[in-house]
Amino acid sequence: MAPRFTLCFQITVVFLCCTLCSSDISCRNEAGEPVDWFIIYKLPRNRIKEVGSGVEYMYLDSSVGSWQMSEFVINSSKGAIGNTLNQLYMGKTYQSNSSVYALYNDAPPVLDYMKEYGHTKGVLLFDRSQGFWLSHSIPHFPSFPERGYLYPSSGKVNGQTALCVTYRYDQFLHVAKQLFYLYPRFYNCSVPAAFSADLPQLTQLCEGSKPQLTSDRRVEQLFSIRGEKFVSFVKSEHFVDDIYTGWVSQVLHADLLVESWQRHNVLPSNCSLPKHTMNIKRIQLPTSVRFQSYHDHSKWCVAREYEDRVTCLGDLNREKAQMWRGGGLVCSDNPIIYKAFRQLVDYYTAC
What count of other Cβ atoms lies within 10 Å of the Cβ of residue 253? Predict the structure, then answer.
């Protein structure tokens, strides 16, 4: 059966398959080479081997095909995330007027946590040609550009995920509209004047203004620089519902297994709607090591049935308070991504 990764509207997209060049702004793999996309899964402390340091991580992109334990650690500037962010830090891009960057986190480094912003975390860096959108689940990360690459000690305790996708410039016009709904806390950003006419939403967010929205949620198809389709679902604080149950599972026509931080007022598995949402309770790594979901601060979901073949990574936990928060998911029907995440599900609670 073909994967049912469909939306309630159609978009005609014309794109060119681009070649990733070593000098272009892009997601970078473990060797520092440009890649279309990558995902990292940082493991919880004491969950790998007998004494886990909390900085080991697994790496995935289309070329490796399955989870690989990284030879690097996440608190080093080496490895995929370090190589990617060093285009901002080491290249001094933040001092240039030829590119746009934005760092956002509802729990930023140094500054106080503020709930009025969307529960979302990430980095944008792009120029008139291309760039990357890195979305992740790590509080207090990344550091301010002038400080260079730093990983917070608090980020060692729980599991975390990060998705990086390389996009052409025109796709960031759509990404900016998605961020408008998320209302992220931009704690460091720059939208030079030459970009402001194209990116009014990003300019407004960078200036600290709260958006005036015409709806409570938005969905957008995005295409990576090599033509890989990703679908961004974003909800504002005005869409008061669980994003997984009340929206995404119904649009994707798939029962979802959800991994999120299960610490406070967790929403139970839900089978009240046509498509169901069930909480993952335990993860099993390719090494056969298991850990409980409450050790995992990442937020992702996979279709329960293999023929649906959908995977989403994002921002929100399945808990009551986050029904009133902005946040989103980026979804893919890539079989490599689906297989990698589906095989991690060791136990979930059915309705």
Answer: 14
- Catalytic position from the list 119, 136, 295, 297: 297
Token pair belonging to 160: 């975390």
Q: Each residue of 154-176: pLDDT tens digit?
A: 999 999 999 999 999 999 999 99
Q: Which helix (H) or strand (E) holds 332?
A: strand 327-332
Q: 253-282: per-residue pLDDT in tens?
A: 999 999 999 888 899 999 999 999 999 999
d(CA 270, CA 244): 10
Quick check: 127 and 99 in contact, CB under 8 A? yes
Question: Does the reported pTM lie above 0.85?
Answer: yes
Active site residue 297: yes
Number of domains in the chain: 1
In a domain, 5, yes or no: no
The one-letter amino acid code at 258 reads V
Domain presence at residue 8: no
Residues of the chain below pLDDT 70: 1-22, 47-52
Domain of 151? Answer: 27-348
Angle at the Cα of 280 from the Cα atoms of 278 and 282, rounded to 5 degrees = 155
Q: How far is it, in rounded angstroms, from Cα 156 to Cα 138?
A: 9
